[in-house]
Amino acid sequence: MGTTQLESVPEPKYWHLKTVLTEALDSEFSVGEILPNERDLAARFGVARATLRQALEQLELEGRLQRRRGVGTTVAPPRVGVAVGTEQHTWPGAAGDAWQPVDSVQAPPPAAVAAALETGADEPVHTVRRSRMSHGQQVATELLYIPAVSVPGLTAIDAPSGAARARAVLRELQHLPLEGEDRAVELGSARADDAKELDRLPGSPVLVVTTRFFVQGRTAALSVATYRADTCRLTFGESAGVEIHHDPEKRAS
């Protein structure tokens, strides 16, 4: 592997270096591979280590690299494609759903959720927590709010706690005739609990996808899914659910 010297360019040197590093990632490295240390990389590209760090930080922000404690800097897997605008409607937990149930509790939801579900401010609802994995890494977490009226056949005997109860709530939800759903996406900041689950710092950028599920003209369930913004991208089309894009050419840069 030879030494590549950077020529004088009008843009910041670290930004040009980011472009050069991106080309190297695409042609020389595979997902999960550990990059050489900073000293060797700085020598290869003929830049100061401070310039190199700026470029690496930018690539990490864009989701091309991951810094793992005790491991080093590795090539990140392709981004998760979050499909929006689809006309195919299915309940959470249906066949092919890649989300994993974690647990379910009954508690009053946030005020905005209670308003959307048209429940009382202090009325407990089922809150199902689920996680989404990609290449062995958690890339999203979800809170699914379901009022008791949407799952009338659920009993504590069927599923007392944990992931089993979450699955029982989702199974009961399948009995309702889903009429449609709408979805909104916005950029947000990771709350402390979400940041811990997603292995990010509090305040890190996230994509928040809010989905309302309708039955007989009312909101029968509401999902708030939080995705790591550095590992996810939005996709528009007819494909339903959440897709994993393994084609390097489709990675966001």
Automatic annotation (TrEMBL):
Residues 11-78 form the HTH gntR-type domain. Keywords: DNA-binding, Transcription, Transcription regulation. The keyword Repeat does not apply. PROSITE patterns: HTH_GNTR (PS50949). It holds the Pfam family UTRA. Coiled coil: none annotated. It comes from the Bacteria. This is GntR family transcriptional regulator. It comes from Streptomyces canarius. The lineage of its organism: Bacteria, Bacillati, Actinomycetota, Actinomycetes, Kitasatosporales.
